[in-house]
């Protein structure tokens, strides 16, 4: 335990917090791209005809694509000297992880977007606004999923914990460190989910009232 | 006895390229001194060693004398041996690398490094100038075949595959190995200490498979150049790469103070090479020269000047000083020379058909399809195992998710405080732990309790995936039980709760299937791990990872379809109830 305390007394917390910022950064990038792509897909799904069939297929594929495999695909399929419209297109580790989350993000936004647009058309505005807490929930899921970056050397929160764990000899110390990691990850996550639940409950109540009055 | 030694070129001043030796302190005076020592050693060994006709020195002198006797008459003849051409032109064209620290670097006209000085020493032995020609890993063998260089000294590992493309000079002039580098204080001394640890490597490194087989997790990088920086910024705790690559970094005092070469493995002898056609006499001369350089310690002296590791060279000196090897037939003696690294992979029985198919696709579509997993027996075996273990993992993860859903759902829906709260706390902890961390915790506990094996890793991965997803689905079941109670339902509560939570159960079953590739992070031998291993010794990364993506996406879609059927059954049951 002394070894653990010594390790933690150094610069573990600042490093971990910096790592968590990377987790949030990855999730934010994935969400922004996912919003743009997902809303397009949602519009395509509601447009009818062939566009709907094509969009539904694309969304199903995106939903089924495992993030971790997409990440390794991007890492290996895009050459380091690749260019896009003449500009260098080499992906950083952070961008690779963020892009690997885009299929999930876009499919989620498309599903939530379709629901929201249907509510808007039906005139149930409050129900349509549930889109925002749903998307925020997806954001927190992606914060957690971004820890996959540990496999390709992205210095995010879990990477910091694993590096510290490798310095520890004692089995017990490692488990204590992992438990600490769960607590540190859990605080913002549980707080975020609680806020979303509160928000959803309020909107849910308003939605019921709105639907009753409609 | 005649000692054939490095000697000063008889005509003209040193050329700029040759001055690199002088710049390093190896002046003509040094060569003369070494020549004198070699002469004395040679005379001494003549007194106690094999007879004159059997020494490599005599054999080399005789070979060169014979070749020189043909000059200039044979200079205009076609198809003469390259040795004659070199003697006629009074220069040897040596293919060398431009940037390989400590071995061959170039700054303007100035070349430095172990290989540069070896080339110059060979030029002196033959009595000719050295013309350096820039080569890289891709061009060094083609340039030999195209007669644009006479000799390649270019950090080239001698393996059975290359043996068919060039004539390698033996004895080998160096031997590299994959070295594992890490912080000095880290207690890693051998392969067995790597189990469960992450090692940073480059994609395509031939020794990756061996690291994986020892239970190490690999972190892949495209280029070796980033590894020292990743060690310094602690992205990597350990890095594995060719020791010749790390040699330069260990000359840096700061790096050397912080890091240590823990151990080495996967040794590869480096060979100079000449063309397979028309170079028999040149190859024989170079064999003998290399033999003499080892015996007389010239390779060691040059190596010391450039701060490369000398262990192999010292070992070789011992070998070539033995009476058994110090003969003109020593280079043909299997007890004296090292075999090439055996990299020949047994083809599958259908490899030819696969090649035909690849060609057919390329001809028809222009797509460069490469299917390395189907062409060689080891790759095919890895691929089959990967698919099998992936299916085991997915099936296991689905079963475990369902099992933990039932157990934790029942506990969380229980009226008993002692059952409900531990289940809730466990669920909260699992929800707060990213799946990577949950997997690592499961693997750490499994390694602490059981010996490392495929079954242990698979078991840990299945348990982690099942717990992570089962906790979430179980929470939905528990909440459904409480909501049913609130509605006044009492009979068949658990079954009804399962029906009510069917959407969430299905969602987390799909999530468990999608999450299975992450198990490769803790060393589970599923398809992602297998294909990463395959790409470490073969080409076709894009095709390989495309196949991986298609495989997992297809499997998840099948799981989605099956879960959809399950949900339908549950909903029908609910409607009937």
Helicity level of chain A: over 70%
CATH fold description of the largest domain in chain B:
D-Maltodextrin-Binding Protein, domain 2
Oligomeric description of these chains: heterodimer
Q: Supply the CATH class of chain A.
A: Mainly Alpha
Sheet with the most strands: spatial strand order of chain B: 10-9-11-8-12
Q: Supply Rg of chain B.
A: 32 Å
Q: Low-confidence stretches of chain A at least 5 residues in length (pLDDT < 50)?
A: none
Number of domains of chain A: 1
Q: Which sequence of strands runs across the widest sheet of chain A? A: 1-2
Secondary-structure class of chain A: mainly alpha
CATH architectural designation of chain A? Orthogonal Bundle
In CATH, the topology of chain A is named MetI-like fold
How much of the residues of chain B is beta strand, in percent?
5-15%
What would CATH call the homologous superfamily of the largest domain in chain B?
Answer: Periplasmic binding protein-like II
In helices, the fraction of residues of chain B equals: 40-55%
The residue-averaged pLDDT of chain A reads 84
**Count of helical regions of chain B:** 23
Overview of the structural elements:
The complex is a heterodimer of chains A (214) and B (577). Chain A has helices spanning 2-9, 12-46, 50-64, 67-77, 93-122, 125-129, 131-145, 157-167, 171-213, and strands spanning 83-84, 87-88. By secondary structure, chain A is mostly helical. Chain A has a single domain, classed as MetI-like (MetI-like fold, Orthogonal Bundle). Chain A has a two-stranded antiparallel ribbon. The radius of gyration of chain A is 21 Å and the shape is flat. The model of chain A has no long low-confidence stretch (mean pLDDT 84). With 577 residues, chain B is α/β, with parallel strands linked by helices. Helices cover 54% and strands 11% of the residues of chain B. Chain B has a five-stranded mixed beta sheet with strand order 10-9-11-8-12. The radius of gyration of chain B is 32 Å and the shape is elongated. Mean pLDDT of chain B is 85; it is low at 1-29 and 39-53.
């Amino acid at each position: 335990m002394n070894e653990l305390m010594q390790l933690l007394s150094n610069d573990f917390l600042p490093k971990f917090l910096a790592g968590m910022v990377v987790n949030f950064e990855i999730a934010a990038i994935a969400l922004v791209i996912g919003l743009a792509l997902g809303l397009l897909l949602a519009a395509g799904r509601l447009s009818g005809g062939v566009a709907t069939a094509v969009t539904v297929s694309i969304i199903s594929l995106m939903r089924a694509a495992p993030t971790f495999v997409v990440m390794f695909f991007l890492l290996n399929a895009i050459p380091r000297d690749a260019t896009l419209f003449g500009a260098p297109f080499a992906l950083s580790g952070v961008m690779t992880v963020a892009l690997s989350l885009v299929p999930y993000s876009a499919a989620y936004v498309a599903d939530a977007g379709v629901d929201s647009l249907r509510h808007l058309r039906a005139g149930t505005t409050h129900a349509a606004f549930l889109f925002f807490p749903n998307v925020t929930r997806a954001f927190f899921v992606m914060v957690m999923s971004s820890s996959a970056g540990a496999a390709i050397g992205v210095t995010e929160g879990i990477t910091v914990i694993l590096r510290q764990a490798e310095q520890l000899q004692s089995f017990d110390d490692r488990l204590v460190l992992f438990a600490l990691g769960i607590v540190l990850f859990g605080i913002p996550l549980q707080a975020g989910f609680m806020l979303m639940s509160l928000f959803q409950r309020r909107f849910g109540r308003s939605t019921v009232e709105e639907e009753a009055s409609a | 006895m005649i000692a054939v030694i490095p000697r000063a070129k008889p005509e003209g001043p040193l050329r700029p390229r040759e001055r690199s030796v002088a710049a390093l302190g190896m002046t003509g005076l040094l060569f003369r001194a070494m020549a004198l020592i070699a002469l004395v050693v040679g005379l001494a060994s003549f007194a106690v060693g094999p007879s004159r006709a059997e020494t490599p020195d005599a054999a080399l002198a005789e070979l060169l004398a014979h070749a020189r006797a043909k000059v200039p008459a044979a200079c205009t003849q076609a198809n003469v041996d390259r040795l004659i051409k070199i003697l006629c032109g009074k220069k040897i064209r040596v293919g060398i690398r431009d940037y390989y620290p400590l071995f061959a670097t170039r700054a303007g006209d100035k070349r430095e490094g172990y290989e540069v000085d070896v080339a110059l020493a060979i030029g002196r032995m033959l009595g000719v100038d050295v013309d350096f020609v820039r080569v890289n890993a891709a061009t060094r063998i083609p340039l030999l075949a195209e007669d644009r260089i006479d000799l390649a000294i270019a950090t080239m590992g001698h393996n059975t595959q290359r043996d068919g493309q060039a004539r390698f000079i033996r004895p080998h002039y160096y031997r590299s190995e994959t070295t594992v580098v890490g912080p000095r204080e880290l207690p890693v001394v051998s392969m067995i200490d790597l189990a469960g640890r992450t090692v940073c490597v480059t994609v395509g490194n031939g020794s990756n498979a061996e690291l994986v087989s020892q239970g190490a997790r690999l972190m892949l990088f495209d280029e070796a150049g980033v590894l020292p920086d990743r060690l310094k910024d602690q992205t990597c705790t350990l890095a594995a790469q060719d020791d010749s690559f790390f040699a330069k970094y260990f000359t840096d005092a700061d790096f050397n103070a912080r890091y240590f070469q823990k151990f080495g493995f996967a040794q590869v002898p480096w060979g100079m090479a000449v063309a397979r056609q028309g170079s028999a006499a040149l190859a024989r001369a170079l064999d003998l020269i290399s033999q003499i350089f080892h015996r007389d310690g010239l390779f060691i002296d040059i190596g010391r000047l450039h701060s490369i590791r000398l262990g192999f060279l010292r070992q070789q000196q011992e070998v070539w000083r033995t009476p058994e090897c110090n003969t003109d037939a020593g280079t043909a003696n299997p007890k004296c020379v090292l075999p090439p690294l055996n990299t020949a992979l047994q083809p599958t029985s259908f490899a030819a058909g696969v090649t035909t198919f690849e060609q057919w696709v390329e001809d028809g579509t222009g797509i460069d399809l490469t299917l390395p997993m189907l062409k060689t027996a080891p790759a095919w075996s890895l691929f089959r195992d990967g698919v099998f273990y992936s299916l085991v993992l997915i099936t296991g993860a689905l079963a475990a998710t369902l099992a933990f859903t039932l157990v934790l759902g029942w506990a969380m829906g229980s009226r008993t405080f002692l059952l409900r709260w531990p289940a809730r706390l466990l669920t909260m902890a699992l929800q707060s732990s990213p799946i990577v961390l949950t997997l690592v915790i499961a693997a750490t506990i499994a390694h602490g309790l059981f010996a490392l094996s495929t079954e242990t890793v698979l078991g840990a991965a299945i348990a982690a995936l099942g717990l992570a997803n089962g906790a979430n689905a179980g929470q939905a079941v528990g909440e459904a039980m409480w909501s049913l109670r609130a509605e006044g339902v009492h009979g068949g509560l658990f079954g009804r709760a399962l029906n009510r939570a069917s959407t969430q159960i299905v969602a987390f079953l799909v999530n468990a299937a999608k999450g299975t590739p992450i198990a490769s992070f803790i060393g589970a031998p599923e398809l992602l791990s297998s294909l990463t291993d395959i790409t470490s010794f073969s080409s076709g990364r894009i095709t390989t990872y495309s196949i991986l993506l298609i495989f997992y996406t297809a499997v998840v879609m099948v799981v989605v379809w099956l879960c959809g059927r399950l949900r339908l059954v549950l909903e029908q049951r609910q409607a009937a109830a």
